[in-house]
Amino acid sequence: MPELPEVELYTRYFAEHALHRRIARVRVLDDRILGAQRRATFTRALTGKSFTRVRRHGKHFFAAAGAQWLHLHFGMSGDLSFYRDEQPRFARVVFDFADATHLAFEDMRLFGVAELTPDPDAYVRERGLGPDPLDPQFRLSDFRERIAGRRGAAKALLMSQEVLAGIGNLYADETLFQTAIHPRRPADRITPAETKAIFTTMRKILRTVIERKARGGSYPSRYLTPHREAGERCPRCGGTIEKTVVMTRTTYFCARHQR
DNA sequence: AGGTATGTTAATTG
DNA sequence: GCAATTAACATACC
Description:
There is one protein chain. This protein is α+β, with helices and mostly antiparallel strands. The chain contains seven helices and ten strands. The strands form three sheets. The chain has a four-stranded antiparallel β-sheet with strand order 1-6-7-5, covered by helices on one side. Strands 2-3-4-8 form a four-stranded antiparallel β-sheet, with helices on both faces. Strand 6 and strand 7 form a beta hairpin. The chain binds a DNA duplex through residues 1-3, 6, 32, 59, 73-78, 90, 108-113, 149-153, 156, 159, 161, 168-173, 225, 247-250.
């Protein structure tokens, strides 16, 4: 599930519950979640430490502990659960704190990763991740430079983590819906005005969704997201929502106002 | 039973 | 050679 807004909420959740508690024990319940790292390396580095601060870049989460950073990627089904008694069914890594509370990293489908990294900035650089759209340093001019020369589908552009870090299938569709751009439009046929609209609208969407979800709310009714079903009425123009596949991903759009 | 799922990457194609 | 596309990954649920 998680894209940038959801990972932002996980980050806040982690900061609220898991910071400054002594890690008495680290339990890895399925080694496949660790990627290339060895279990002993992972558990040894974190045991006895405590998480002191958190960071997020796109869909990537980092928490400082001692000299290392815990890096989590939530894949398609990752989630966090802070609890006292009931360990979640799909917990893959559990941090047992000294005060008898626990934080579980759950991931049913195992596309996620839990690992250590010495430096989040270096990680982002080495991975070639693009800027976080909500970073105050991120400018329209940066965005223009990053998309220059690209020819693929508009949707592929927004979903590329090298262009921008954090947009996935859902918010790519939502951004294109609100800027009236067809998901298959070639990137080199997006006008400068549309590029600016994407830049502004995308960030507004991310901020709005974070705020709404933080208060336990749902998506605005004029958004595409609550109408992600073929045959639904478009809340902007009254057209019909269509379902198709773009770059192997299920895509919803309004064939009347998205061109 | 089969298709589907809000992600990433390795492999393949153009 | 580089950019764009596709296949593969693992698992539960409708």
